[in-house]
Amino acid sequence: MIAALVIGGVLLLAMFGVSAYGWVTLPADARVPIHFGPGAYNNFVSKRFGLIMHPAAGVVVYVITAVATHHPHKSSPVIIVPILMCVLLAVQIGAINVARNRAGTADLSPTGGG
C-alpha cells in the first residue's frame, strides 16, 4: 500500500514537471487539448487551464488512493493506481505535443479549430 502511494507521488511530481515544461515551452496563445471521452482530443482550452487540469486530475486520483489505502480492512487493488497515473501522464504529454504542433501551424479550418 505504501509503495502505491510513493509511486503515485513520484508520478504526480512528474505531472507537475511536465506542466512546468509546457508552461515554459508553449507560446502564450497555445490551446491545450483536454480529453473528455473516448476517441480523439475533443476540447481545446487556454494554456493556463489546460496545464492545470492534467495535474489536478492526478491529484484527485492520488487523494482517492490515499483515502482508499488508509483503511487496510477495505483492501483495493493497489496496482491500478500506478497504471492510472501513468495513463494520465501519457495523456498530458500527448496533449502538450498536440498543443505544440497546433501552435506551430496555421489553422485553415472553416470553424477556426477550437
Task: Tell me what you see in this structure.
The structure is a single chain. With 114 residues, this protein is mainly alpha-helical. The protein has one domain (2-102). Helix content is 64%, strand content 7%. The protein is built from three helices and two strands. Helix 1 (2-25) packs antiparallel against helix 2 (47-70). It starts with a helix and ends in a 10-residue tail after the last helix.
Report a brief summary of the structure.
This protein is mainly alpha-helical and 114 residues long.
H-E order = HEEHH
Report the mean per-residue pLDDT as an integer: 80
Overall helicity: 55-70%
Number of strands: 2
Q: What does the largest sheet look like?
A: 2 strands, antiparallel
Q: What shape does the CA trace take?
A: elongated
Q: Helix tally?
A: 3
Spans where pLDDT lies below 50 across 5 or more residues: 106-110
- Strand order, biggest sheet? 1-2
Structural class: mainly alpha
**Oligomeric state of this protein:** single chain
What is the C-alpha radius of gyration, as a whole number of Å?
Answer: 16 Å
Write the layout of secondary structure elements.
Elements: H1 2-25, E1 31-34, E2 43-46, H2 47-70, H3 80-104
Antiparallel strand pairs: 1-2
Helix pairs in contact: 1-2, 1-3, 2-3
State the main characteristics.
single chain, 114 residues, mainly alpha, two-stranded antiparallel ribbon, 3 helices, 2 strands, elongated
